[in-house]
Amino acid sequence: LWSLLILFLLSMTVGGLVGGANIIDQLLGRVNPAEAIGSVNGSKITPDQFNQAVSTRLESLRSSGMEISDQQLSNIRLEVWNAFVEEKLTEQAIKDLDIFITDDEVLHHLENNPPLDIKRLFTTENNEFDEETYRRALSTPGLMDWNPIEAWMRDFYLPRYKLQQTIKMSAVVSEDDIKNEYIKKNLDYTITAIHIPK
Q: Where are the alpha helices (DSSP H) in the chain?
């Protein structure tokens, strides 16, 4: 029991230092710390990937004039680690569900449902979406290079969008569930006595 407790404390300590790596996995040889600080369902997260993500986040915060304390640095490392874990799980879910994006889907979303990140490329001085300029760029060949945007839509944005839609469609709530939840939240009463006739 004491051995497990010591391993647990070491895991928490070293895990905090390297961004969440599990020392028990390292001691048992499942993760080589030189190659990965941890793995999510067998998908490794390398020290270079993690440290670069942390550095990028720190540079972004410092460029906005924010000073980073030791506690904030620890929180940032934890946030970056959690983001890596979430991304790995998302990638695996997309692969498991065999989500595939066609050129027609990319074009449909660009024409009818452009993501916020793309709308930001076409904002006015008042930070409003300039739809006229966007439509002109979309319909005029050679006006701008759409290849990076299409690649981002196909490889990143739309697979995650379709995954969210799949999850929403699978979350079915019955009328009985709604009724029971309403009763539980809105009907409040206390029974002090019950009369049972003979």
A: 2-18, 23-27, 47-63, 70-96, 103-112, 116-119, 131-139, 147-152, 158-170, 175-186
What integer pLDDT is reported at residue 3 of this predicted model? 56
Q: Contact, 164 vs 157, CB < 8 A?
A: no
Give residues with Cβ within 8 angstroms of 78, minimum separation 6: 16, 19, 20
Long-range CB contacts for residues 95-99, cutoff 8 Å, separation at least 24: 97/163, 97/166, 99/159, 99/162, 99/163, 99/166
* Beta strands 43-45; 38-40: pairing state: antiparallel
| Contacts (Cβ under 8 Å, ≥6 apart) of 84 | 40, 45, 49, 50, 53
Quick one: CA torsion of 142, 143, 144, 147, rounded to 10 degrees? Answer: -30
Segment (H or E) for 43: strand 43-45
Q: Give 77-128 pLDDT, tens digit per residue.
A: 899 988 888 888 899 889 988 999 999 999 999 999 999 999 999 998 888 9
| pLDDT, mean over the chain | 80
